[in-house]
Design brief:
With 333 residues, the protein is mainly alpha-helical. Helix content is 68%, strand content 3%. It has 13 helices and four strands. A two-stranded antiparallel sheet has the order 1-2. The protein has a two-stranded parallel sheet with strand order 3-4. Helix 2 runs antiparallel to helix 12, helix 3 runs antiparallel to helix 12 and helix 9 packs antiparallel against helix 11. The two termini are 47 Å apart.
């Protein structure tokens, strides 16, 4: 019963936090950082630091270590059977019956779940002989973290050019790349109904991207009810056609943003496939997986920001651009 309730809850929270992440990122992009009092909209400069936003994401992922540390302290100090509450002494049995019973209980609990389910396998400790991901092996998590850096930075940059709704829909292309990579690299098998569903999703993503390019900021038009209104509507249409040339740049930016977000899904799909392969070979609690990826991702992002700032950001053409780390720090502080 607990599992039936927990799974829908986790799915709902995943959707909720994903939507909040998109809306908050777009809200951050809309913040004015310079020339806010100017009457010319072209002179107003808004927040446009996708690399800084990537670093912020990894800071949030590293927050998982706070939960891990709190759970460790709870088991160590606050539980009734904690060693500190028992004087730090635990009686050691002369035989291995306790170890054997614990092993049997673990085996029985694992046999009760579907061993082919990757979610169950990643939550059961020491399942099917997998080794623990400790020591130097945690560096393996730096590989999907680097994919996360590339994918998230591209998506943050694409979000600068499109609406939040188009951004969220375009991310649906992820399922296609995950499906293809799972078949090619993980040797999974997808049936006809799987490919049909993937095709429908990608078709919907393409329609959303096309709609965003045709009408970046659509507005409802009233239905004419008289000849005068019809004439005014025709005149308005002519004027809009004259403005098409000016709007072409905006449409181009929208197409560029959609392409960047779609391309980012390749890196995100690679990240997911790598994570699944690592968790099939090694065992580690999900919170620690996120924590380690956050740590490695933050380190690589900061090093990359310093290098790009020295190479591009501090130059005349790169000042106030995506790679100007000094300006990025000023804007968020």
């Amino acid at each position: 019963m607990a599992n039936r309730v927990m799974v829908p809850f986790l799915v709902a929270m995943m959707l909720l936090t994903g939507v909040c992440n998109t809306l908050l990122s777009k809200y951050q992009d809309l913040q004015c950082v310079a020339n806010c009092d100017s009457d010319d909209p072209d002179e107003i400069r808004r927040f446009s630091m996708p690399v800084v936003q990537t670093a912020q994401m990894f800071v949030g992922e590293m927050g998982c270590w706070i939960i891990v540390a709190g759970f460790y302290l709870y088991k160590r100090c606050l539980r009734k059977d904690a060693p500190l509450l028992r004087g730090g002494y635990t009686q050691v049995e002369d035989h291995d019956s306790g170890i054997e019973s614990d092993t049997e209980d673990m085996d029985n609990s694992f046999s009760a779940v579907d061993s082919a389910n990757p979610v169950a396998k990643s939550l059961v400790p020491n399942a099917d002989g997998r080794r623990e991901l400790v020591g130097w092996r945690v560096i393996l998590l730096a590989i999907p973290a680097c994919c996360d850096i590339a994918g998230t930075t591209l998506m943050n940059a694409g979000l600068l050019f499109v609406a939040a709704s188009i951004y969220q829909m375009t991310r649906g292309a992820l399922v296609l790349f995950v499906g293809v990579f799972s078949v090619v690299f993980l040797k999974r098998k997808l049936y006809l109904y799987h490919w049909t569903a993937l095709f429908v999703v990608v078709l919907g993503v393409a329609i959303v991207g096309l709609a965003g390019a045709i009408a970046p900021h659509p507005q409802a038009q009233p239905e004419p009810s008289s000849a005068v209104q019809t004439g005014l509507l025709v005149l308005r249409t002519v004027i809009e056609e004259l403005k098409t040339q000016a709007k072409s740049t905006e449409a181009l930016y929208t197409v560029l943003g959609v392409l960047m977000i779609a391309a980012a899904q390749i890196f995100t799909a690679t990240q997911f496939v790598l994570e699944e392969w690592i968790l099939e070979q090694y065992i580690l609690e999900p919170l620690k997986v996120v924590g380690w990826e956050g740590l490695w991702g933050f380190i690589v992002t900061i090093v990359g920001m310093i290098i790009l700032h020295l190479a591009i950001g501090r130059t005349e053409h790169g000042r106030n651009g995506y790679f100007d780390a000094e300006e990025g720090w000023r804007e968020i502080s």
